[in-house]
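Before the break, one more example. Copy the sequence into your notebook; we will annotate it together after we see the structure.
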Amino acid sequence: MEKYGIKVDILPNYFLKSDGTFNKEEALNLCGKIAGVCYDKEGFDHVKNEPVEKTKRRIDLTLNNGHHSVYDHIMINFNLQNVPKILAMVLNNENQYTTSEKSARYTQVVREEGSVITKTEEVLYNKWVNVFKISIANKYGKVYDERKIVKLAQENARYLVTVFMPTQMIYSTTFRQINYIASWIQEYIRNCNIYEDFDRKLVYAMLEFFDELKRLNVLDKGLMKNEKNRNFSLFGHDLEKREIYYGDTYSTLYKASLAELAQAQRHRTLDYQMQFLAKKEYFIPPIIEDNESLVQEWLYDMHQVEHFTPQGELVLINEMGKYEDFILKCKERLCTAAQLEIMEQTSKTLQEYKKALEAKNHYLAKDIEKYSHGARCTFPDFTCTSKCNFKEGINLTRKI
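Here is what the structure looks like once it is written out:
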C-alpha cells in the first residue's frame, strides 16, 4: 500500500481552534443565522441575536433539505503538504476554489527518503535536465540567461516524473464544497478499479486526504449526503464520441500531456475532462524533436517509467466553454512566458475555431480574426506590461 504522508493544516481564521482543528459548531451556527436572513424583515443584526434553539432548527432544516448554499459563506484555507500532483489536479478541476501551488518550473525534483518518486525517475530527470540545458543553450543562449535555461530544463524534464509526485499548495474553498468533495471521494472509491495501478494509488491518496479532513473536524454528514450522485469532474468516459463544435460555445478534443492538463484546468470558466488512451503515447518536447536520436532516447526513457504514470503521458481531453472565455484563455496562454505545450495547443484550437466560424459565416468570425496574428501582445485589446522582444515568442514559433 502506497503511503504518501499527506498532511493538511488550516491557515489561521476565525474558525480555527487552538489545536489546529476547525470550529465546525461555530461555523454551523453562523450559517444557520445567515439562512434566516431570507425570512427576517429586520436582517442579520436581528437574526444574530435570536434564541439558540431557533438557529439549531434552521441548521437541521437546511442540512436535511439540501439547501446548502448558506454553508458557502465559510471559506477555509488549507495548507496541503505532500499531496500527489494528480490529487491536486482532481481538486483543481472543481471550480469553487483558489489555489496557489508550487511550480515545477522553479523546483528541482529531489527524491527523499520514503518518497513515491523512484530512483529511476530521479536518474532520468537529472539526465534530461542536463540534456535540455545544452539543447536550450545551443538554440536560445542569446535570448535566455543561465537561470532561465535551468527553469525551462526542469520544466521539461519533469515530464518523466510521476503524476503522483508530491506537491505543496494553499487550497481555499468553502465549508460546503470541502464536504461535497469528501462525498465524491467516497463515491470514487466505491466505483474505481482497485486492481488498476493508477486507481489504487489515487485511492490511497484520497483516503489519506479524507482522514486529514476528519482529523480537522471539517466534515459534516448533512453536507455529505450527495443526493444528486455527483462525481469528480476530471474523469470522463467515451470522450472520443463527443462532437467537435465551434460557435458561441465550443467543444473540442485533443491529446495533451497530464502536465498540460494541469495548466489548462486552471481556467475555471472552461470545463475539462480527460481519459487515458488505449495505447500509451507521450509528449515530445519540441526543443529535441528535430534530433531523431534524442527523440528515440526520450521515448525509450518514457517507457522505463510508464508504470508510474509520468506527467508526459498523453491523455484525451475534452475542452468546453463559451467563446469569450476561450479568448480569455488565449490572453493568458498565447505568450512567451506560458508553458510551450499549452501555448501550442491553444494556438491550434484558435486556428480551428477561426476556420470553423469562417466556414459558416458566423458573426464571431470577424472578432476572432483579430486574435489570430500571434501572441497576446499582438491583440488589440491586450496591454503587455513586460515585453519580451522575442520574435519567435511573438509569432508563436518558439521551441522551448
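The chain has 14 helices and eight strands. The chain has two domains: 7-101+168-223, 239-394. Try to locate both features in your own notes.
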